[in-house]
Amino acid sequence: MEPIVTLDDVHLTLGGFEALRGVNLGFGEGKSTIIMGPSGCGKSTLLKVAAGLMPPDSGRVRFRGKDVFQMSERALLDMRKHSGFVFQDGALWENKSLFENLALPLQVHFADVPAVERSRRVVRALERAGLEDSASERPAALSGGEKKIASFVRALMTEPEVLFMDEPTLSIDHAMTERLHQIIRDLKARGRTIIAVTHDAQLTSTLADSLVVMDAGQVIASGDFDEVKRSRNPRVRAILSEVLKDIASYDTDLLQLLDGDPEPGAP
Description:
Blueprint: E1 5-14, E2 17-27, E3 32-36, H1 43-50, E4 58-63, E5 66-67, H2 73-81, E6 83-86, H3 98-109, H4 115-129, H5 144-155, E7 162-166, H6 174-189, E8 193-197, H7 201-207, E9 210-215, E10 218-224, H8 225-228, H9 234-243, H10 252-259
Parallel strand pairs: 3-8, 3-9, 6-7, 7-8
Antiparallel strand pairs: 1-2, 1-4, 4-5, 9-10
C-alpha cells in the first residue's frame, strides 16, 4: 500500500541553516509514527513540511500521491479537511474566543452544515476536553495546558484521517496528559494515521508503530519501531539512549538494548 504522506528528497534552508537535508520518508496509512531527535535537529520543521504548512526549497511532498505544493486551491482545501495539526504552542487565534477557535474549521470545511449542528459539535468537543467552562474565554485567559488541549481538540474538529502532532503533551499537567493519551489511543484504534514529534515516553511506548530518528536535518534511521530501537548505529543509539531513556519503565526490552554495548563494526 502506498504511503498516505510521502517526502521525496526534501531540502529546506531557514535563516542560512540547512533545516532539512535530502529527506526521504513515507508515512503508512493507519500507522502511528514517532519522530525523535535532539533539540534543533529539524523535527518540527519536518512535521510542518509533511503537513503542507511549509514548502520545501526542493523535493516533493505528496498526499495520496499528489504533490501538495502543486495542488489546486480546491484540492488543497480538501487535503486540509482530511488532516489536522496540533501546534506545540497552541497557535490559537488571539482575537477569538475558545468556542470560535474550535468552530472555525467547521465553518471552513462544513459550511453546508447548519450553524446549530456546528455549534453542537463544538460544545461536545469542549465537554470532552473538559473546557466547557472556558468556551467564552480568549486564549490570553487560558493556561498553557488549556491552550495545548484546545489546539488538540481544534485539530480533531473535522475528524481528520491524518493527525500531525508537535509535542502534544509538553507542559501540561498529569490529568490533562492522561486525557490526551486516551483520546490518542482511541484515534489509533479507529485506524487514524498519526505522525507525531514527542518526547513523551509513555505515549511513544503505547503509540509507535514506526520510528524516525533525525540528526542535523537528516533522517538517520526510520522504519518499524522494534527494528529501529535495535539499531547498532552508534549515533542512533546515542540519540535513543537520551530521548527514550524514560521509556525503560514501560519497555524492559528497550532498557536492555540501551544498557548493552554495540557490536564492534556493526552498522
